[in-house]
Protein: Long-chain-fatty-acid--CoA ligase
Amino acid sequence: MTTTAVERTTLADVIRANNQTCPDSPAIVGEGRTITYGELSSRSDAVASGLVAHGLAAGDRVAYLARNATEYWELFFAASKAGVVIVPLNFRLSGPEIAWILDDADPAALLVEDHLTELVPDDWTGLRLTFSQTGAPAVADGWQAYEEWLAAHPAVDPRRDTGGDTLCCLMYSSGTTGRPKGVTTTVSGFLWAVDAFSAMFDVSPASVSLVPTPYYHIAAGGWSLIALAAGGSIVQFTEVTPHNMLSLLVGHRATHVIMVPTVMQLFITSPEASAADYSSVEHVVYGGSPISETVMLGAQKVFGAQLSQSYGLTETIGVTTFLRPEDHVVGADSKLRSAGRAVPGLEVAIMDPDTGALCETGVVGEVVTRGPGVTTAYWRNPQATAEAFWPGGWFRTGDAGHLDADGYLFLKDRIKDLLMSGGENIYPAEVENAIMAHPAVQEVAVIGVPSQKWGETPLAVVVPRAGETIDPAELISFTRERLAHYKCPTAVEVVDQLPRNPSGKVLKRELRAPWWAGHERNIG
Structure:
């Protein structure tokens, strides 16, 4: 269980407490710069002083555009100490996508890895800081070297942090209309999640957590904060490959490991990985898709650790339901195909997606949730906020499923068009908007189709304009010029027309059905 010397009422209290109790303990190890809690506290003090000196007011935004690096956590805790909002940006996005988010979030300062500075529009105004993970950064005109800027400010905590329902983090996810939505997270929401989840996963000062996904994902940022709040260490990745994941897991004696089932399968089938020493591993947490009996049994044999599945969204700080270790058994009444039960403190229900009426046990409807870890609004988007909630504060996940008599959630399909590929959320509308700019395209529908490697990948079903011919490879290249590559279709199917209902709505379920035949559920 987590212990602190000071009661936490703000996120800054996390690092202040550990600076008092374990200043010489490693906070971050692995790839990038290793740092102790004392060093992290001091450097975040200096960053916070610099932000205040630059004129950032309480509630202003500061954005981070880089791969995983120690600098992220310096900025994260500095933002809390200065009373400003951290905005982690997806470094895999294209220039136009980054430009749109910067315009929407309107940050007053940016911290960017040097090879990504060209993604920032020339006309963006604000404090531009750049750093490198391989040596001295290449500092372009208009930019300042982060280390030099930091050294110019005193390591004095301004203590301007806020608590309660104050916004502290703004994370962007793709939107149903093709534009990203800023998911707002409050201080109280984050602190609730830290306390709730650290208890569920037995995170302690002795824990070493391996989190191989980017910090712009709530799973990585959220879990890492839980580990840091406990006074444990996080094993940081700059680039994730099977080899370095194995090397860092074993080399740092990780106790808690976050994986997706496809990576777990790789570990249990690779001769090198399956023969490694995993005696340090206590808990393997996976998400994104259910686990097969074969992978579960193999993982239990190889890791000799507890297995847990989590299901959640950015809007719920990553975890909504939890399939506990004791549920990972094979048998007639097995719950393995479920996503588990609601996290203590959160409520999960099933509602009719058209009326908002509660569904009976076993009846499929839309999964809804409410509680202290659930967002209350999308940033500067009242329409999206209104559409996302039913009366009573129930957040609409967009996933279809049912609850059994024991309260276990079984996911069946998506009500929204969201698909997930390799842990990345993709809204087809965004991809469709890009494809529709092609002069040969009359109509397009993007769906998710099964992928053994990624869970699912985007498929574009395209109707060409009269007299035009669609070259699938050329269309994919066209899309890649406009969107992050992971959002782009991996295949194109050319058809004469799209299936529609009487009101003219495209029936994507009909398009998905042949691809998902034989799969127990149509979502990861």
